[in-house]
């Protein structure tokens, strides 16, 4: 029995119309609405935020919203990029109410989109019931799909709306800004504006920054340099796989299964993981030692292969000043993105150290059920639980 195992042992519209409608008009609501009554029958771990119970603070770093302007601008490009997204739900519709409330559960995509489009005030009651104190929200839209000439204004507007939305509830929200990767000069200026003027602490990239190019492409070097200078971490979030590999690698099954395998079942995790690996192998993290990377879903599989990569691609081959593993441990932070699996956590803790782990649920793509209970019941000291729950995020993003 392994050490990890021992520790664990011891411790609507039609579906198509709904998806198309959501892709077109998903919105980041800025108008405050009255907070509704709390739902009856909340799970035992869902302690009210206002109950006065002394408890550990929780900050979540991968919680999504949608912007209506960007969604409309990129709708056609998005459908062309990911036509198979319409097949999700063709055979099976996710319903967290049918599942045990022991951990976050996948929600049905049209419902997810609706929730992500609502004002931030609407999610506060859900955060309170789950005893989640703070979210750093981010767009799940891909502005890099917009036409180059429109991207700069689209992104500026989206960041302004994000900043305005979170400023209404500074004790509950902050946000990752987005960038116009199509225009690297503009992206550099926008990063500076977001950090210095809008007071947003970090940026998130959904998928590849442009076409078939990954983040290590030399054209993006000035953006990486600026993020390092600003001490603004870069969250590399999954996006759809390249067209050239989607059908050969993930096709051949029923449409719903192919879509899920291509995206959140496997494919886009590999896409995000390879971006981080390529960023390391390109020498970008050697050149920019202050650049900090955040990687969700327990590092998109990369931590589990660090030793293998070090054994097969040592510095004599890569030309880097450090091993891949050392580079990763020094400049990459990882979070679960709602994959609250204790063996995964214990492995990542052992390989990376507790100081490199942050917390995330991936709301509203996943529910918040069971998140606090999982954290509080981890078989680790209380100080380490607090590091994951909020201290590491506070230090990484300079949150109060």
Detailed description of the structure:
It contains 19 helices and seven strands. It has 400 residues and is of the alpha/beta class. Helix 2 (15-25) packs across helix 3 (68-81) and helix 6 runs parallel beside helix 7. The model is unreliable at 1-53 (pLDDT under 50).
The largest sheet has its strands arranged as 1-2-3-4-5-6-7
Spatial gap, N to C terminus: 42 Å
Count the strands? 7
Mean pLDDT: 89
Q: Which key terms come to mind for this protein?
A:
46% helix, disordered N terminus, 19 helices, 7 strands, alpha/beta, single chain, 400 residues
Task: Lay out the secondary structure.
Blueprint: H1 3-10, H2 15-25, E1 59-65, H3 68-81, H4 109-117, H5 120-129, E2 134-139, H6 148-167, E3 173-177, H7 184-196, E4 202-206, H8 221-230, E5 234-237, H9 243-250, H10 255-262, H11 267-281, H12 284-287, E6 293-295, H13 297-300, H14 306-312, H15 315-318, H16 324-331, E7 332-334, H17 342-352, H18 371-376, H19 382-397
Parallel strand pairs: 1-2, 2-3, 3-4, 4-5, 5-6, 6-7
């Amino acid at each position: 029995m392994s050490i990890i195992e021992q520790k664990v042992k011891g411790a609507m519209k039609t579906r198509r119309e709904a998806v198309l409608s959501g892709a077109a008009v998903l919105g980041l609501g800025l108008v405050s609405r009255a907070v509704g009554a709390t739902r009856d029958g909340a799970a035992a771990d869902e302690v009210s935020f206002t109950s006065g119970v002394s408890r550990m603070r929780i900050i979540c770093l991968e919680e999504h919203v949608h912007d209506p302007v960007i969604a409309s601008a990129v709708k056609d490009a998005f459908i062309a990029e990911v036509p198979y997204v319409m097949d999700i739900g063709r055979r099976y519709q996710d319903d967290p109410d049918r599942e045990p409330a022991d951990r976050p559960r996948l929600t049905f995509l049209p419902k997810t989109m609706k929730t992500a489009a609502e004002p931030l005030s609407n999610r506060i009651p859900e955060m309170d019931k789950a005893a989640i104190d703070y979210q750093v929200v981010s767009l799940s839209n891909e502005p890099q799909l917009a036409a180059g000439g429109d991207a700069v204004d689209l992104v500026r507007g989206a960041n302004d709306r994000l900043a305005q939305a979170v400023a209404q509830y500074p004790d509950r929200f902050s946000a990752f800004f987005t960038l116009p990767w199509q225009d690297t000069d503009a992206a550099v200026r926008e990063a500076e504006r977001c950090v210095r003027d809008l007071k947003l602490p970090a940026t998130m990239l959904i998928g590849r920054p442009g076409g078939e190019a990954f983040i290590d492409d030399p054209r993006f070097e000035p953006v990486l340099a600026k993020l390092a200078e600003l001490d603004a971490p870069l969250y590399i979030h999954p996006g759809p796989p390249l067209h050239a590999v989607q059908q050969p690698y993930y096709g051949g099954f029923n449409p719903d299964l192919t879509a899920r395998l291509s995206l959140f079942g496997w494919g886009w995790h590999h896409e995000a993981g390879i971006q981080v690996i390529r960023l390391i192998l390109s020498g970008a993290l050697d050149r920019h030692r202050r650049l900090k990377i955040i990687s969700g879903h327990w590092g998109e599989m990369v931590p589990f292969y660090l030793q293998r990569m070090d054994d097969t691609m040592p510095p004599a081959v890569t030309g880097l000043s450090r091993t891949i593993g050392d580079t990763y441990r020094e400049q990459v932070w990882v979070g679960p993105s709602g994959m609250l699996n204790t063996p995964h956590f214990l492995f990542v803790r052992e390989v990376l150290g507790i100081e490199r782990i942050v917390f995330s649920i991936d709301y509203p793509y996943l529910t918040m059920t069971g998140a606090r209970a999982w954290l509080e019941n981890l078989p680790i000291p209380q100080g380490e639980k607090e590091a994951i729950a909020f201290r590491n995020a506070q230090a990484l993003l300079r949150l109060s």
